[in-house]
Amino acid sequence: MNLTAIRFFSICFLITFCLNISAQDDYRAEIGITGGGAYYLGDANSQLFKNTTLTYGALLRYRLNPRIAFRAEWNKAKVLWTGNSVGNNVNALDICGEFNFFDLEKNEFKRESRTFSPYIFAGIGVANYSYINNSTYTPTIPFGVGMKVRLNAKWNLNAQWSNRLLMSDKLEGIALLNNPNNLNGTNFLNNDLLSTATIGITYNFWKKGCDCLGTANK
User: Fold this and answer.
1) pTM of the model
2) Which CATH number does the domain housing residue 158 bear?
3) Where does residue 25 fall: left (phi above 0), alpha (psi -120 to 50 degrees), or beta otherwise?
4) Local confidence band at 19 (pLDDT 50, 70, 90 cut-offs)
């Protein structure tokens, strides 16, 4: 067998090997839906998980590597307080960076490789709600913790507790409930906090190409 044939079969072997690895779980992104409960801390509510209401949303996640990802997430919720049945509808949009404590991939050759991983996240966002019957937009600082589970090559399960610190004290939507002169007791900034506890399912897409020959992923 001449040198050209050896090179040809070696390249074929490397390409096949890389395709088998990438076929396991190498995807760049995932998209999905979430649902769970929401509550807020502010002038009209100072107890965790009190007056919890339904929340739902959608997310788009881009994986930079097995440990780090970026996520865009939208959530719709309603804040309630004792004695109130109407509440205030809130739309929240977050852009966050995530850090996984394990390499979230199925790779038997990596010691820290797992099909599950706890993670932490933080970022920036914006919330839209009504204040004195006017649509209001407020910057937010989202942060929290979660758990990711790889169900199979295509599907993932997410459990997450998110907290959004609003750069305002008007989430109640009613001027009489807003108490700007006294601390509401939830944080030293006297800002409202919107929290959600959700479970979501996501679908993997945008498969990575093979880079075993030194070429960039396509």
Assistant:
1) 0.78
2) 2.40.160.20
3) alpha
4) very low
